[in-house]
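Human: I wish I could look at a protein chain and see how it folds. This is the protein in question:
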Amino acid sequence: MSKSVTVLMGGWSAEREVSLASGAACADALNDAGYDVTRVDVSRNLKTLIDALKPAPDVVFNALHGRFGEDGRIQSLLDILGLPYTHSGVLASALAMDKQSAKALFAARGIPCPEGKLLTIAEIGDSMPLNPPFVVKPNNEGSSVGVMVIRQGDNRVTFDNWPYGDDVLVEQYIDGRELTVAVIGDRALGVTELRPNVGFYDYEAKYTDGKTEHLCPAPIPDEITELAMEYAVLAHQALGCRGVSRSDFRYDDTESSPGRLYMLEVNTQPGMTPLSLVPEQAAHAGMSMSDLVAWMVENATCDA
């Protein structure tokens, strides 16, 4: 009898549409791999979700992104229900989603991060909290949701219609190139460079076909490739991640060789859409999408 897998997708975060695309791609690949798949579009109705998980599947495939799906909350429910699930557990998910807390852990492991500070919107007010250029981002969102780059000559930071809470992470802007590394289990798959056609690697550049060029493997010095992969595995372990994660970096090679590498964040629920980076790196390493999701299902667990 084939193993039953329930794929959770959608949700109500700012990344709902991406999650629906990730969930659909994963469910299709799981079907191709021979699993008995059920798809669930998660709502805030807890009874509806629990009912959708009856009878209990062998594994829950968590394809949710953003708050409530990626920050430990859905993981805690699955732990209570005793259902094995893919990706990281409660603590690792919560830590990774809190960017400032994650940066403190990375720094303790010797992983360089951009200088910055956590402020409230009221504390920023009309001031410039850092010398431009700098980056302003929500402390607990993913997929570059809400990210702003403030450059020299900009008058002030504006938070008109800002829906991401009071806590704002303000960081030094790192010039250079965008890199990402997927980790599966305890090994890094490779390094991809991302070259947006216009501007920086924001939400639109991530999820719009043709907006960003993916260079896999990244055309960077071997020592930077090795360092990025080392840092990605180290960060995965520092947070206590399991399954698959993805680490994002800035690589500043603008003033010296070989340049400097800075970690931005770890994604414990990386995108699995047709444009996503983890399936792309897995394919380059010889692992099909069906192989990838099957590995995730077979390595699913819970902390019950």
About this structure: Residues 95-113+176-268 form a domain with the D-amino Acid Aminotransferase; Chain A, domain 1 fold (CATH 3.30.470.20). DSSP finds ten helices and twelve strands in the chain. The radius of gyration is 19 Å.
